[in-house]
Amino acid sequence: MKRHLSLIIVALSAILSCGNAADLSGKIILKGTPPPELDLEKELDPQCSAIHTKPAKTRFYIVDANGGLADVVVYVKSGVPAGQYKPPQEALTIDQKGCEFNPYISAAMVGQEIKFLNSDPILHNVNHTGSDDLQKRPPNIAQLPKAAPISRAFGKQEQLFVKVKCDVHRWMFAFIAIFDHPFFAVSGKDGSYKISNLPPGKYTIEAIHRKAGKVSREIEITDAPATLDLTLEIK
């Protein structure tokens, strides 16, 4: 009985805290000059060359004129309130278009549906090797042009970046971060991000980029919107 009462109190506390939740936003800035992106034109086959709308290059560093860095995963590394968090009903959609996965970097929750589309007029395949789908569906499956979406959902928090690739076109790949809580974001083209509905408390926020590394900061959230800008540096 006491144990049940304690669980109820914890649950009520979490609900009350979420009622005073606030948003954390900011920008990720890249310090230094990134190396030139690699040219992929020689990798393209004739079909992909015909549908690619711009010069094919790697997408390691997407930086705007003010140093804002895109494709950075920002998340609560420690301090997440105890409890079970339900995945959003809205699916994360990743499209294969112009012989590229879009978005290139994304994030989802454990159990959240991830839909892979093929908007190209050619065959692709989706291969998430090393990561188990909740329903044990094959990790590697071909997808015909304009075919029905391939649906996936991961059952545990993975290493920060699950690699998804197309074996038909070896330059095509994307990365997904899988979390067991909803307190994460991916920075946009101007480096901006927003983590919504953080309950009041002390947190460690980490920003991680596949090439520029990672940085962590401590922050205390109250019931008012908070701002945290972070800088990553090219070594």
Describe this structure as you would to a colleague.
This protein has about 240 residues and is mostly beta strands. It has a single domain, classed as Immunoglobulin-like (Sandwich), CATH 2.60.40. About 10% of the residues lie in helices and about 40% in strands. The protein has 2 helices and 17 strands. Strands 1, 13, 16 and 17 form a 4-stranded mixed sheet that branches. It starts with a helix and ends with a strand.
Oligomer status: single chain
Low-confidence stretches: 1-18
**Count of all domains:** 1
Task: Name the average pLDDT.
Answer: 88
Distance between the termini: 56 Å
Strand percentage lies at 35-45%
Fourth CATH level, the homologous superfamily: Cupredoxins -  blue copper proteins
Shape: globular
From the alpha carbons, calculate the radius of gyration and give it in angstroms. 20 Å
In N-to-C order, the SSE pattern is HEHEEEEEEEEEEEEEEEE
Based on helices, strands and strand pairing, what is the structural class?
Answer: mainly beta
Largest sheet: 4 strands, mixed
CATH topology: Immunoglobulin-like
CATH class division: Mainly Beta
Count of individual helical segments: 2
Task: Report the strand count.
Answer: 17
Helical content stands at 10-25%
The CATH architecture designation is Sandwich
